[in-house]
Structure formats: C-alpha cells, structure tokens
Amino acid sequence: MREFRDEQLLGAVLDHVDLSGSSWNRVDLTGSTMRSVDLSKVDLRNVALEQVRVRGAYLTGVEIWGEVEGLTVNGVDVGPLVEAELDRLHPERAALHPVDPDGYRAAWETLDGLWVGTVERARRLAESDPELLHESVEGEWSFVQTLRHLPFATSSWLSRAILGDPSPWHPLELPWDEMRPTPGVPQDRAARPTLDEVLELRRDRFERVRAYLADLTDERLAAMTDPVDGVGWPPAGESFPVRECLDTLLNEEWWHRQFAERDLAVLESRVAAGAGATTAEDGGGRHTGASPGGEERS
After folding, report:
1. Around Cβ 41, how many Cβ atoms within 10 Å?
2. Mean pLDDT lowest for which of 104-118, 194-208, 261-275?
C-alpha cells in the first residue's frame, strides 16, 4: 500500500486511476475538477461542500446529515424544504430560534426537557449492557462521548468566549475529532467515564448556561465578546457576537441529541434482536429482554 503523508500535490492530474478502498484524512480538494468519478459506497465525514457543482449525477440511497443551506437539486432549493420538514417532525425546533433574552431562556428549558427523556432512555438501554453506552455506531461518537462533547462546547463558547476564562475545560471534555492537538485542551477520546460521572459534568455545564441566561439582557445579547487570551478554542484574539455564541450552544445541544437518538435506536434494535434470538432458542418462552421502546432518545 502506498502512503502519501504531509505532501503537496497541487495541480496533480489523476487519469484512469483506481483509488477504491483508499482513506483520505485532512485532504484539501478545493477547486478540484472531477469527471467520470465513481463515488459509490463512499463514506464522507466532516466535509465542506461550499459552492460545489454536481452535474450528470446519479444519486440513489444517499444519506446526508449536516447543515443544509443553498442546496439546489434539479433547479429546486431544497434547503427550505428540509427545514420545514424538520420543523414538522420536531415542533420544539420553533423555540430554538429565539430573538430576545426570554426566548433564549425558554429555548434552554426546552432542551433540558428533551434531554430528560433521552437520558432515561439511555439508562434503560444500559440495564441490558452498560457497555452499549460506550459503543460507536458506524464510527460516530458513543452516547457517553456525546455527553462529553457538549460540556466542551459550553466551556468553549460560554466560559471562554463570553466570560473570558482562557482555560475552562475539564479533563473529560471532548472536542471534535478533527481538532488538532492544542496545549491545555483535553482530547482523550479513549476515556471511559461512567454515565453518572459524565452526567454530573454535563449538568454542571448546563447549569452554567442557565445561570448566564437568567441575567441576560437585550444589551448583553447584542454585544460582542472581548477577545480572549491564551491558546484554545475559540482562537485567542478573536471576538464574536454574543448571540452567535449562544446560538452555537443551542445548535450543538439539539443536533447532538438527534445524532444520539439515531444511533441509540440502532443499539436498541440490536438488543431486541438478540433477545428475540435467545427466546427462540429457549423454545418460545416469554420475551424478557430489554425492549427497544417506541420513543426516541439522543
């Protein structure tokens, strides 16, 4: 197997080249042209597709999770259609686009209520096997890792960006996988805290946001953050609208719950299938395994 690492291949021409089964990480294809390219069964994660033009495409069985804005399919901007359908499927989203301090406070309470059901669902799954909450589905974060990432987002965008703490992170907090190692910023993806340990950390960070929102005024909401010192995330020396920081937290909370709901449903189905197989082997006795349940959880 040939490996290319830390190389500059600007302007390279690949013609009639077989790259099937290859792995691309931190690859910059900005401005590239691709013709007669087979992308069947390709797994794309954390990709930027800005100002991309696709012509003569054949899309079937394609699944996309991400921010969809300005996506035109056969001349139709499907972004608003996707947003409208998400709002229909999830009426609580209407509360997650606040315009004033009271709206932000209400949005945070909405998220808190949603996560209560999600955690209850996770605990029921853990009753069959606690290790399931550390299990990755198709390379995504486990449930516990998701709960570790959300405090990182809060520490970064509230404690550091808004409140000015240069190093607010707890050792268990987890940044996104592609973040380059940064001095002082935890990045231990392999840590395996218990559900209760990570819930305690998450609750502390969640309550910090609630406390900040309790005193939020129109003036503060319209303000810019003071540039923060020290290495970390967001970068030192940058200033952001307070509203943008808070919107980031709302977005992180809602979407990561959706991702967790999606993946935990897969784990529940596995538990149910395993329990069903055991029942059959036992001669058709009453099902006593963990039930997947009908409600969603993150």
Report:
1. 8
2. 261-275
